[in-house]
Specification:
Layout lengths: L3 H10 L19 H6 L6 H6 L4 E6 L18 E4 L28 H9 L7 H16 L5 E6 L11 H7 L16 E2 L6 H31 L8 E4 L5 E2 L4 E3 L7 H4 L3 E4 L18 H5 L1
Helix pairs in contact: 5-7, 6-7
């Protein structure tokens, strides 16, 4: 299922969200994956280890996972850490940060930019850096558990695309003529709404965000190597959906047009004993994660 919240229910339940229902939270009858792999969330850590349960942890800056009306995905974990301030998170009430462009040119509100202005002084303060750094620190503290299940849900490189300037310069060296341009464009057909310079600047913003995420994900993977975890740990890397970035004349995740740019997502599994370096042709979907992990 795609996008966002429906994709997560696919992962957490092993059941297709679409076309059964639309966006929504976990339901009472759902056998959530975290509890299936780590046991009762209210059990003590000592008791869980004695009974052979795994420890589970969720680390994420994705606000929708915590929303009662649409998320509620966190209670079944042994522990969870919410990185605050991403996108539309109701986090800070300080005076509103100046909106960087006319509101009618953006599909989002000003909350993200207020949070960023109040909390971001260096690359380490970007959300992807905070998520993967927290995950690396959790591994350093918890890798001695007999078994663990760590779920990292990083919102980036979703919009807003607001990468560090030094990364943006790699992809936007000449500085496109885009005064008052916004890192969250409306989901629409770009030739009817934006100039070629605006499109190319948007593509540069996205590319720089991908590099930012890759850099901090790489540091997490380095931590796994330092701790010797590749020898006995299954790692699954995937996402919920892609995005149009000029493809087919469109920008954003227009759900009515399921081209490869949106639906053909990365899915990489690193197993200590199987499939090293292999590329498989079989169809794999997010619902396959549930039985694979179990």
């Amino acid at each position: 299922s795609t996008p966002c919240a429906p994709a997560r229910r696919d992962i957490y339940t092993g059941r297709y969200e679409f076309l059964e229902r639309g966006w929504g939270p976990m339901e009472d009858g759902d056998a959530g994956l975290p509890e299936q792999v780590s046991g009762p969330p209210l059990a003590s850590i000592t008791g869980m280890n004695e009974q052979g349960y795994r420890v589970s942890q969720l680390i994420s800056d994705h606000v929708h996972l915590w929303e009662g009306s649409m998320g509620n995905y966190h209670p079944n974990y042994t522990g969870h850490e919410f990185i605050r301030g991403q996108e539309a998170d109701h986090h800070r009430t300080d005076p509103v940060y100046d909106f960087p462009c006319p509101v009618d040119r953006s599909s989002k509100n000003e909350r993200h930019f207020r949070h960023a202005a109040l909390t971001r002084d260096r690359e380490e303060d970007h959300f992807a850096a905070r998520v993967f750094s927290s995950a690396a620190e959790w591994l350093e503290r918890n890798h001695d558990h007999d078994d663990f299940y760590l779920h990292i849900d990083c919102f980036d490189p979703h919009e807003p695309w607001d990468p560090p300037e030094e990364l943006l310069e790699q992809f936007d060296p000449r500085g496109y003529d885009v005064d008052d341009w916004h890192p969250v464009v409306n989901y629409d057909e770009w030739p009817e709404n934006y100039s070629r310079d605006e499109l190319e600047h948007t593509q540069a913003l996205y590319a720089a965000m991908v590099v930012l995420v890759d850099r901090w994900l790489g540091r997490l993977l380095d931590t796994m190597g330092d701790l010797g975890l590749w020898e006995d740990t299954l790692v699954i890397f995937t996402t919920d959906h892609g995005t149009f970035n000029g493809d087919h004349g469109r920008i954003g995740k227009l759900q009515t047009h399921e081209h490869d740019a949106l639906g053909h997502i990365p899915f990489i599994a690193a197993h200590p004993e199987h499939g090293h370096g292999e590329r498989r042709d079989q169809l794999v979907q997010l619902v396959d994660i549930y039985p694979t992990v179990l």
